Amino acid sequence: MNVFTGKKVLILGDRDGITGEAIEECLRETEAEIVFSSTECFV
Description:
The chain is an alpha+beta fold. It has one helix spanning 20-27, and strands spanning 8-14, 33-40. The chain has 1 helix and 2 strands; from the N terminus they run E-H-E. The protein has a two-stranded parallel sheet.
């Protein structure tokens, strides 16, 4: 059991930093349910 067990996750990545896809890939092995994932440009 880990901290993501049974959790729903919203991912907001940064275009110039860590992308949403990279964060999503890190969470694939957990039991988290990824509800939304996006990469945005924060200016």
